[in-house]
Specification:
Structural class: alpha/beta
Strand content: 5-15%
Number of strands: 7
Number of helices: 10
Shape: globular
Largest sheet: 5 strands, mixed
Helix content: 40-55%
Radius of gyration: 18 Å
């Protein structure tokens, strides 16, 4: 289960899997569920080795000192987006109402109806994926219907291109259109969506945001509730989170591309440190 976490979260996820692999622990699973940044990681890991992806994550991005794409600009935009959505969460009656409010707000953004913005985002996502094709092994990517607020799970049988599925799962800044449907970030269902592994004997959850949620705990969207649900149905569950030392890599900073190498190294160190424990669980 690969949770959401922005650009740094994606790098951290890749780092964890690479750190485990370098320690001799292969966590290739019968089912992979990806949410937001985790959907990108799920598609990447299905088409390239952890070592290849880790090496790519360590390459610093070009430094932009002016114009869109600057690190401070992306962080500011992420902070503004978090503030807007926090207000929507605070005004919602329940999880379904929250998703409908989030979807309506996203649909109202100018970028949602801007086909050039959609095309640029799709091209960005496509450039990150080793292959545009769905893997044969089961991979589930989470999204939320922007018009109804209903959670949706996409896979290779959904009739949706992998690139579009990943782009929709990561659509936190605007609603992403696929055909006649509009979607927003799958993290609005749940940050990790670990409950989609119900019935599995073992479930490994990699959670860049550490299981935190901005929704009231009574709604049951937080990771601890998901883990309780899985265990109640007989699954053994292991959770890996970044730890306090890596907190500065997430939050609004999660969209800072310059932090990706540091996040990847932090993930690799975490995977290597927990390799023995994960191996005992996974085997």
């Amino acid at each position: 289960m690969l949770g959401g976490g922005g650009s740094t979260g994606n790098a951290w996820l890749i780092g964890v899997v690479a750190g485990l692999a370098d320690a001799g622990v292969d966590v290739t699973a019968d089912l992979t569920v990806g949410t937001s940044a985790g959907s990108t990681a799920a598609a990447q890991l299905a088409g390239a080795t952890p070592a290849e992806l880790y090496a790519a994550a360590l390459v610093p991005p070009p430094v932009r000192t002016a114009g869109p794409g600057r690190a401070d600009d992306r962080t500011r935009q992420a902070a503004e987006q978090m503030a807007r959505t926090a207000a929507l969460v605070a005004g919602a009656r329940d999880a379904g109402d929250m998703r409908r409010r989030i979807g309506a707000a996203a649909l109202a953004l100018p970028a949602s109806s801007d086909e050039s913005a959609r095309a640029r985002w799709r091209a960005t996502v496509a450039a990150r994926l080793p292959s545009p094709s769905w893997p044969q092994r089961p991979v589930l990517l989470t999204v939320v219907d922007a018009r109804t607020g209903e959670p949706v799970v996409l896979d290779r049988h959904s009739g949706v291109d992998l690139v579009d599925a990943v782009a929709a799962s990561c659509a936190s800044a605007f609603a992403y259109r696929i055909g006649d449907e509009w979607y927003v970030d799958g993290g609005y269902r749940r940050g990790e969506n670990a409950d989609l592994a119900a019935g599995s004997r073992r479930v490994l959850v990699l959670a860049p945001f550490g299981g935190r949620t901005r929704a009231p705990r009574a709604w049951g969207l937080h990771l601890a509730a998901q883990v309780d649900e899985l265990r109640a149905r007989g699954s053994a569950v292991e959770v890996v989170v970044p730890g306090a030392a890596a907190d500065h890599l997430f939050g609004p900073q999660a969209m800072d591309l310059t932090l990706r190498p540091e996040a990847a190294r932090a993930g690799h160190a975490r995977g290597a440190a927990l390799a023995e424990r994960v191996a005992a669980f996974w085997d």
